[in-house]
Design brief:
Layout: H1 2-34, E1 44-49, E2 56-60, E3 105-110, E4 114-117, E5 123-124, E6 133-141, E7 147-153, E8 159-160, H2 165-174, H3 176-183, E9 198-214, E10 219-220, E11 224-227, H4 231-241, H5 257-270, E12 280-283, E13 287-288, E14 300-315, H6 318-325, E15 343-354
Antiparallel strand pairs: 1-2, 1-15, 3-9, 4-6, 5-6, 6-7, 7-8, 9-14, 10-13, 11-12, 14-15
Helix pairs in contact: 2-3
Length: 376
Amino acid sequence: MKNGKRRLFTGVMALLLAASVSVGASSKAFAAQKKDAKLPDKYIQGYKVDSKDGKKTPVYNTTPQSKGNKLLDSPQNKEASPYEANYPKLSEDPYAPAPESGTTTTDSGKIGDVVYFKLKGVQAHFNGSKEFTDAGVYLEKKSDGTIEKGLYDVKTGATNTAPVETINNERAQHGEAWMVEKYGPSMAWSKAFDGTSKLKRESKYKLLGTSTVANSAEWWSGLDIKHGVSKTESYSFAWTIGFKFSVEEGGGIVPGKVTEEFSTDLTNTFGEEIAISDEVTYKDQTRVPKADNSAYQYDVYRGALYQLTNTYTLEPGTGLQELINAEEYPGDYGFKQGLANPSFQYNSKELYYPITPGSHVKPGEGGEDNPPEEGE
């Protein structure tokens, strides 16, 4: 009798478990069936946060693409980002995962006037210090077209031409062809600036966080956001983009001034305004308002947070690559160890918050003081 009751109890529990699984599966299946409803003609695709004033602006599915569009100057597009073509789009199904990134835009510009190379195992004095510090080697094209060689402090950016003063003077006196004939192909410094090398910039929105919330709730990430370039990273950034920057007396960069110099140089390189800032970290407080489309077919919607990232890469051209591969003259501070920092990723201030298509149709503002509770 006891065995019979146990079998009956076990059978009932199995049915209950099967029923619960079936209900969960069928609810999603039902949601998927309901999703066949047509999207509204105009809905909010997401929200962009202006990189200058932090203003949150809705981006509609009808907003014209910013790049290469004749409607760029239309009133509807005044608030658009120059990177709108890169915006990631979420699936109409809120249960589908968010893409890891948006589309990538690639631009190319001329390299800067300085090329930095590795020089492992070499130390030198900088800024009059008696201490030896790790050094790299660089080539700089001066405004008059002459090329100078020097060493740089990998920790402070300070430079010193004294260790190569003799060879610089000899080159200035006799010219490059004479130097190549006497010392070999590693003296063909002009190859570093033959116009075939490029500074490539790849721009895309990278996913920071995503989740679903009930239609009646705001979506809010609450993540720590970091953008800009730190003092330490400024050196690596400079080694990549090939610009010379201000260094304080005694070594080290001048905060604010260096990023301003980077901004100016990059703007000139790519022909559009590029703002580089010092590093800032803050907690994201931007809210996406609750779903307001009465015809929306799901009980939840998905929100996501993306940050615009720009990856800068120095791509050696024919001449620079030949110089790196060239046989070095004994005792010369050569280039065989390659570029100091070929690539650098910069996190921009610009953020984008896409939401499930069709869930929002009005540009209402989310509250600022009541973040969603965990688990919503």
